[in-house]
Records
---
Amino acid sequence: MVDDRTPYASHQEIEQLRDELRRLKEEQEKQKNGRHEDGQPKDEKKEESGEENEKPEEPKKPHPVRKFILIALVLVLAIGGLLWWLHARNFESTDDAIVDGHTSGLAARVAGTVIAVYVEENQFVKAGQVVVDLDPRDYEAAVASARGQLQQAQAQQQAELPSVPVTRVTSQTNIANAGSSIASAEAGVAAAQRNYEAALDRVREAQATAAKAQSDVDRYRPLAEKDEVPREQFDQVVATATSSAAAVAANQAGAQAALKQVDQARAQLAQARQTAGEVANNAPRQIAIQQANVRSRAGSAQMSRAQLEQALLNLSYCKIQTPVSGIVARRVAEIGQHVAPGQEVLLVTRLDDLWVTANFRETQIRRMVAGQSARIHVDALAQDFDGYVESMPAASGSITSLLPPENATGNFIKVVQRLPVRIRFKQGQNGLDRLRPGMSVEPKVRVR
């Protein structure tokens, strides 16, 4: 296929050829009517009308040179048309094409009031250049607050760090003390047991003494009744027996007290062992609790550090920088304007990465593939550039439009679709810096 205007151009050339042939024929007819066969004018013909009436008029033969010129002209036009068709069928072109490029919209990342705008429309900007300033005072205060919270969290973390070793040492001391208490209680039980056994020995000894004293009383009583022994001696024996009986009772009471002390010592031993078990069981838990507190303090410090970093980021966002180099296509921000996060303030057009979006008819891309060379005519510059087909389209323009066609319903009329082909400019050409997105171009792709 050829250019969109090829059918119209061919028809126009044919009409021109027809008009030229018609004009030549009319000139020949005029020349025939203006002269006789012998080349005399019409006035002389009237004067010699008598002679001519006597001789029959012969038709004038066309000049052989004119005939040759006409045939040669037709052949030249036919050969030229054939050569033009043979040449034109190797190219596909369209005038439905524009220069395309990346357009970056700069938007505010934080809310604030615009206090300065450093660029104007159609001004060149470099990547990283500050173009808009927002009022930073609120974010400076947020940074100071976040920094104070971080210092407080770090201080609490430092204060909590020694608690783990302190708790570990305390737990070890408590375990040792519990062991000492157990040993002391065991010694107390052993001492009380010995005291009890000694009290039992004293009871048995007192009982033996009391039994002897009672036997003395029983032995002296008949003698005293017969006055064979002095009454004072008998009374002494009775008193000794009474004293021995009292000693028995006292020793028995002491043994009972010693037994209670044994029971009390055993109870203290059981309590000491229970306490030691609780201390041994609670020591790891107390250490774990302190370690959890330390981790909690560390987490709080980390969160405060993240809040400080976010506050610093928000403060840095008060200076809006352009991420790419290009030309400011539209300026939206004005001094005193309040902007919200995501609100566009500038529109920057990149000039270092331009291409052509050419919308060819679907019948034109039959032999078109990526990599084929192209010639691009830019209307605004009246200049041609070299390029190549970078990629073929993924879908037609109607499919990717906002409202794609729905051919499954209603009447269907077949329409030739257009598909956007991307054509890339070759680097190193003069005039590439003058190209702008949106310029109309006419690309011609060599498909064979």
---
Amino acid sequence: MKLNRRTFLVNSGTLAAAAVSGGVATSAKAAPAAGSPKPRKPYEGIGDAPFAAGEPCLQAPAETTMGVAWKVSGLSKGVVEIADNPEMRGARTVKAGGYGLVPIDVSVLQVRLENLKPATTYWYRTVSTPFTDYKNIYDAKLGKPVVGKIHSFTTMGATAHSHFCMMCDTHARWEPFELIVAKLKELRPAAVVWAGDATNTTQEKETAVEIFLDPQVKHRDYAADIPVFFVAGNHDFRGSWISKLDEVVHARHPAERTGAEWDLKWNFAVRLGDVAMIGLDTGEDKPDGHPKWFGLANFSPYRRAQAEWLARAFERPEIASAPHKVVFCHIPLYAAPDHPDYPHDGVKIDPQDYAYWSRECNELWNPLFEKHGVKLVVAGHKHCLRIDPPSKGRSWHQIVGGGPELGRTHKGPDASRFPTVIEGKVENGKLVVTAHDVWKNRVAAKITI
């Protein structure tokens, strides 16, 4: 049975809106009682309110840098203490931001750890200090610091453990996300790639904070010890706030870019043991001229810019020498001519048309894949596990991960629809890729490359 993704997502949003409205007429906000204190604005400090800091999330990992982000409940400043031992002896303190003014925020604190050693384990903890009052720099008061738990991570590098996992299309659905996180905790990979559609439509920052930093699951520390690479999906470009996502999710370190590449926030090419992990952004699933975009889409130039960046990334010594080159993206880069997906590649300007796969990305990037020996492309978007072996003109395997459905779509039961964790590790020189069905807790597929 074939899932209509658009109907699934639109119906989900309609039901959510109906649940909120409930058919009850709304009323104007009541005026404050005479003599009551003026409500405190978020950037004026927390006052007497309790303060809390969430679990840290390791983001944008690299050989010598690591991003840390965490949720806070009110205006605060934050630092990360980092050491090369679990007792935190000799720990150094790293402030948020770069040079000049240290940023403070009412909901998210971000710290970038730099000057790290490749393939090295570090221990760290967050320290968050609230402002109880902040009128201006001369009239502000700090509250009691909140010191987080000690966690650890290992940086990327050629001698790191060649073990990764990929999750995708979680769509802020907490029951399948709980199953995915439990599997990641069990497998303990060196890094995780979140390959898009983490969101649905993001109209405000609080939505992104919940999805990435405060998911409504048991293990909210899902990324406190296992770093996460982020690859955007088409839904991660939707919503009036979403262009500011790097306020919640660390973009790649600026040092990874040349001047011409400054706006490539999410692309990565990082060595993890014998694997070169490469992240590409397929963008939206509609052409730039689609009427639904109101002139806001500029993805074709973005894909071409990524092709130029990719050509340079493949020439870097640590990437060129990797025995296994693996590409991660959201929309699949291939569909067989006899496959039902093949005609639907998002090339027409039509209100109902969207990409089942990206022909444009394939034409731009596949020549580079072939030239530099890419062995595997890991994608999502289709909400159904699929494996495409190499074929004429394409020497790489493609594996497509599942979505958030637990054996049921809007059309009824469908056992082929389940969330997945795609695991890759190098064993005896071979890349072994396992697709875990986290709904039934079974191995759904396994290939060796």
---
Amino acid sequence: IDGVAEQIRLAKNRMHTPSELENGELASLYAAYEDRLKKENAFDIDDLVVCPVRLLRDSSNTREVVQERYPWVCIDEYQDINFAQYSLIRLLVPQENSNIFAIGDPDQAIYGFRGADNTFIKQFKDDYPCATIYGLTTSYRCSKTILEASGQVVRPREGGNLLEGIEAGVSIDIRECSTEKSEAEFVARTIEKFMGGVRFFSFDSQITDGSEESEAISFSDFAVLFRLSRMVPDIIKAMNDHGIPYQLVGEEPFFKQEPVKTVVDVLRLIMMPSHSVLHQRLKEKHIRGLSESSLLKIKRNKNIHSIEEYFSEIITLFFPDIMVSHQDAIERLFSLSKEYGSDISSFLSLLQLGSPSDTYNPSTEQVALMTIHAAKGLEFFHVFIIGCEDGILPYTLFSKDTSDIEEERRLLYVGMTRAKQTLFLSHAKKRNLFGNSFHLPISPFLKNIKEELIKRGRAEKGKKKKQDKQLSLFS
């Protein structure tokens, strides 16, 4: 189902109707989906762009009214727009001298798999020849070393970055590990060293002596980035083994995973009791005690004033066990809902439209574990990018013919430029993934980094504690 939904979404982003698809089976499913939307008097997320494009394209009167109403247009992340979004922009501001302000970086175009096309930002000057282009020359985040290295990755033929850093910075640490477990151990030990040791055992095992030259202030200064979520378990184990707190930002937000997803659906139904699809979905789950009267009773409860109180009532009545079985997820839901108080509409909009990075909390004392895609737009003092192997970066393990190598190159660039001070790029000689054992060479992208910018090393195995020599009482 998810695969079909993704194909329909991509078709809509390309402004294709069911009759325009070559795949007959997909076209039939797409048409049935559109009919169901009409029956429910509903739009999906992609329709919010596709339908206005069709309306403005087919009605000159409507187009003129809308253009007059919005004489100024500002667009962020222009490199990530798709064809439907580009069509909307051109309908809103079609003239060469239109009042349009766009921000974008072609080197950070990493959403081609969602239908984004970075050719639109490259032809911006052709679309708007009267526009003035302001190129940024200085990065106030990354060091010169990180900018040089990331520039050599994303533009190997040009051999460098167009941006200047505000300081020289330290060398890029490229670390060879024997396995994914030793890689995870290297990450955890290094964080522990930076923090000056988070356990008494750290001093005893010589992981740290508490006097590191560049100690970190907070665990939130660190991020561990990865290409695939399947690489997370070993990192999590290492974090737990070393007593390092962390927050995981996955490919799918926690509020779209069970049981939180069902709890949120109940709140949606309370607010939208006529939502037939939602009603049917919850009915099929056979939730004990859930009925129209019980939901109406919650809605009319005058003692409930906030979203958090709604969730507390829903969980108490229908899902009491999850407070124990899924305590962390429920606490995250409560914490997120507190930020919105009683504004249920805005909160539900976030849950519908939000991305995994929206759940990231930079104020918590935790190391961030997230995909490189989710890290876009964020920054950290110290960044680890694990799995820098040919087959993972670029990701070609099962799709050598379909992977966009240049987009994979840009993805690593985005990951590298999240780092403000130190950057670690690690690779494993042997890695277990998807139930298989792989022996992958180092990522070819890393070979483009000049040697003078690199500090190379091998992950050390854990040092065994030396046995204290004690004289025998009877010797």
